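User: Reviewer 2 asked us to show a designed sequence for the structure in our supplementary figure. I'm pasting the structure tokens here. Could you produce the per-position amino acids so we can include them in the response letter?
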């Protein structure tokens, strides 16, 4: 599968997992928070799949996972859960695309 399509698929899965983890939490505007989280995590997958850097997949995933998670962590001040999920998700997506992306 192409890296870009694999990135879209991984982004969809990552976004869905992120939203599922938010279901038990309480927010003032829960729907808006869930949509924002989904779009952010989807963007991580798309960015990793679309990038064309000569680095190992895991490092590409780490870069985009951290960079795209930082704005949400700064805005919400929920540093630990957002950065851990973004970093781990980016690493996993980077490894998947590095291994199976063509």
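Assistant: Here is a per-position design you can include in the supplement:
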């Amino acid at each position: 599968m192409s890296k870009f399509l694999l990135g879209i698929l991984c982004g969809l899965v990552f976004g869905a997992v992120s939203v599922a983890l938010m279901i038990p939490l309480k927010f003032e505007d829960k729907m808006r928070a869930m949509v924002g989280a989904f779009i952010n995590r989807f963007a991580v997958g798309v960015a990793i799949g679309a990038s064309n850097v000569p680095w190992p997949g895991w490092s590409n995933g780490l870069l985009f996972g951290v960079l795209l998670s930082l704005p949400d962590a700064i805005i919400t001040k929920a540093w630990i859960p957002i950065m851990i999920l973004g970093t781990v998700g980016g690493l996993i997506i980077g490894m998947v695309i590095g291994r199976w992306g063509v």
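For the response letter, you might also mention the following. Residues 3-100 form one domain. The helical segments are 3-22, 30-50, 57-76, 79-100.
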